[in-house]
Design a protein that fits this description.
With 500 residues, the protein is α+β, with helices and mostly antiparallel strands. The protein contains eleven helices and 27 strands.
C-alpha cells in the first residue's frame, strides 16, 4: 500500500510539473502575440523597426548661431522669462543674463540653440519650429549621415511656431506627409529627433489626445498663437523641437513642439503640431512668403456648463459661443448673430477653441465652407466665405501682414528744409482699422527713426517690418518704435506692436 501511494504521488508530481510547464508556455506564447491596432491591423515589433528605419534619415539636427552682443535683453533685470510649466524648449536653455555695464568688443558667433528638422522634399526643404531658428544669424544642418550644410530661412510663422528652411544637398531622404486627421486616440506613434544633442533618437508612445489647447487646459499664460496640438506620451526633451512625429506607416503626422513639465524635462506629456496645419503653413510660405490666414471675424467663448446656464443655451452643451461680430467680417456678411453657437465648420467639429483654431488654420481667405450652428435651440447651416484680417480677399505679402494701415511717402526737399531735417517718411491716408491709427498716429506725421535706425524712405521701413515679421525675431521684439515730428514741429513717439 505504501509503495502504491509513493507511485501515485510521483505521478501527481509529474502531472503538476507538466501542467505548470504548459501554462508557462501558454503565457510565453500569449505575451509574444502581436497586439491589434484599433484600425484592425495587427501590430508587431516589425512595425516599430520599419517605421524607425524609414524615418530616422529624414530628421536632421538644426544648430543656430549668433553673436552674443546682438541679442537683446528684456525684463527688469535683463533676464529671459522661463515658464516652469510649459517648455517651448530650445536645444540649449537660455540662462539669465545681466545688462551690460560696459561696452563690449564684437564677439565671434556662438551656438545659441539646437533643435531638429524634418526633410519634406528632395530639393532640400526642411520644416522645423520657429523658436528653433529665432534670433539666428546663421543656421547649420547636420544630416543623419553626418553631412553638414548651411541653411537659409525661407519663412517663418510665429503664430503656429513653424518655420521653413532650405539646404542645397543631394540624396536627401524625404519623410512623406501623412494625414493627422486620420489619427486616433490610442494609436501608436514614434517621435524622432535629437534630444540633448543625442542624434537620431527614436521614442514611442500613443496619441493621448487631439486638438489639445495647453493654455486652457493648464491655466498657463497663453502664447498668443494657435494651440491645437496632438498630445502623446512619446518621450521628447530639449532638442526634439522641430522633430518628426510619425505613424507606424512612416508618415509624418506632426512636428514635435512642446512639453508640459514642472522641471523642464519630459514628464509624460508632449505636444506636436498636426500636419493639417503644417501643410497649409508650408505651402503658403513657399508660394507667398507668408501665411494666408483666414478669419471668421468673431469674438467668442468656449461653451461651458456655466455659460449654458448664464446664457440659457439650448440644443447643445458644447461649441463656440459667438459673443461679438467684427465689422467687415465673413461672419457679419453671412448673417451670424450674437448668441449663435458654432459646432462645425466644413464638416469638422468645432466643439472647443483648439478644434476651431485647427479647422480655420487650414483654410485660406476666399474659401467657402459650410458652418453648422445653433440659434435659439434650433440647428442651422449657412455657407461662409472667409476673409483675411483686413476684411477682404487680397493676397498678403511679407511685410503686408503688419497691416500698418497708412500710405508712406518720402518727404520732399522743401519740407525737409523748412523743418531743418535731413529727410523722413510722411504718414498719410491713415486707415481707422490699421495699426498706425490704433497707436494714435495722426495724418502728416513724419517718421525720422524706426527702432533707433534713421529712415528716409518707405522701403527702409518696409524692410524693418519684414525682418520683424519674418520669424527671425522673438515675440517681444516685434514692435515698431517710431520717432518723428509733425509739420508744426512737435516731436512724438509711438510704439506699434506687430503681433495680433
Amino acid at each position: 500500500m505504501k509503495k502504491k501511494l509513493i507511485i501515485t504521488s510521483a505521478i501527481a508530481a509529474i502531472a503538476v510539473f507538466w501542467a505548470f510547464a504548459a501554462r508557462q508556455n501558454d503565457t510565453a506564447e500569449t505575451t509574444t502575440q502581436p497586439a491589434t491596432h484599433m484600425s484592425g491591423r495587427l501590430i508587431s515589433q516589425d512595425d516599430f523597426t520599419r517605421a524607425a528605419e524609414e524615418t530616422v534619415n529624414g530628421v536632421v539636427s538644426v544648430k543656430s548661431f549668433a553673436t552674443p552682443h546682438s541679442r537683446q535683453n528684456y525684463g527688469n533685470q535683463g533676464n529671459y522669462y522661463n515658464d516652469p510649466l510649459l517648455d517651448f524648449f530650445f536645444g540649449i536653455p537660455s540662462q539669465p543674463r545681466q545688462r551690460r555695464q560696459q561696452p563690449e568688443e564684437p564677439r565671434q558667433q556662438q551656438q545659441i540653440g539646437l533643435g531638429s528638422g524634418v526633410i519634406i522634399s528632395a530639393d532640400g526643404y526642411i520644416v522645423t519650429n520657429n523658436h528653433v531658428i529665432a534670433d539666428a544669424e546663421r543656421l547649420e544642418v547636420t544630416l543623419n549621415d553626418n553631412r553638414n550644410f548651411p541653411a537659409t530661412i525661407v519663412g517663418a510663422d510665429p503664430t503656429t511656431d513653424l518655420a521653413l528652411i532650405k539646404i542645397d544637398a543631394p540624396d536627401l531622404h524625404v519623410i512623406p506627409m501623412g494625414d493627422s486627421e486620420k489619427l486616433h486616440v490610442g494609436e501608436w506613434v514614434l517621435a524622432v529627433g535629437n534630444p540633448f544633442g543625442f542624434t537620431s533618437t527614436v521614442t514611442s508612445g500613443i496619441v493621448s489626445a487631439k486638438a489639445r489647447n495647453i493654455s486652457s487646459s493648464t491655466g498657463a499664460p497663453s502664447s498668443g498663437g494657435i494651440e491645437s496640438y496632438i498630445q502623446t506620451d512619446a518621450a521628447v526633451n530639449q532638442g526634439n523641437s522641430g522633430g518628426a512625429l510619425v505613424n507606424l506607416d512612416g508618415e509624418l503626422v506632426g512636428i514635435n513642439t512642446a512639453i508640459y513639465s514642472q522641471t523642464g524635462a519630459y514628464a509624460g506629456c508632449s505636444f506636436a503640431i498636426p500636419t493639417s496645419i503644417v501643410q497649409k503653413v508650408v505651402s503658403d510660405i513657399k508660394s507667398y512668403g507668408t501665411v494666408q490666414r483666414a478669419y471668421l471675424g468673431i469674438r467668442f467663448y468656449e461653451v461651458s456648463p456655466e455659460l449654458v446656464a448664464e446664457k440659457k443655451i439650448e440644443g447643445t452643451t458644447s461649441g463656440i459661443y459667438v459673443a461679438d461680430i467684427e465689422e467687415r467680417s465673413a461672419a457679419r456678411e453671412a448673417g451670424f448673430l450674437e448668441g449663435d453657437v458654432i459646432v462645425s465648420i466644413g464638416g469638422r467639429p468645432t466643439r472647443s477653441t483648439a478644434q476651431l483654431q485647427e479647422v480655420v488654420a487650414g483654410l485660406s481667405p476666399g474659401d467657402t465652407v459650410e458652418v453648422e450652428f445653433y440659434r435659439d435651440g434650433k440647428k442651422k447651416t449657412c455657407n461662409v466665405t472667409l476673409r483675411n484680417n483686413r476684411g477682404n480677399l487680397a493676397i498678403t505679402r511679407p511685410g503686408d501682414e503688419a497691416n500698418l494701415g497708412a500710405t508712406l511717402a518720402a518727404i520732399d526737399e522743401n519740407t525737409a528744409r523748412s523743418l531743418e531735417i535731413r529727410g523722413g517718411v510722411s504718414v498719410n491716408d491713415i486707415d481707422s482699422e490699421g495699426r498706425f491709427a490704433k497707436a494714435g498716429v495722426r495724418e502728416n506725421f513724419i517718421i525720422l527713426g524706426v527702432n533707433g535706425k534713421r529712415v528716409t524712405s518707405p522701403d527702409e521701413i518696409k524692410a524693418i517690418v519684414k525682418q520683424l515679421t519674418s520669424g527671425a525675431a522673438q515675440v517681444q521684439d516685434r514692435v515698431l518704435f517710431l520717432s518723428g515730428i509733425y509739420p508744426s514741429g512737435k516731436t512724438a513717439y509711438y510704439a506699434i506692436p506687430l503681433d495680433d
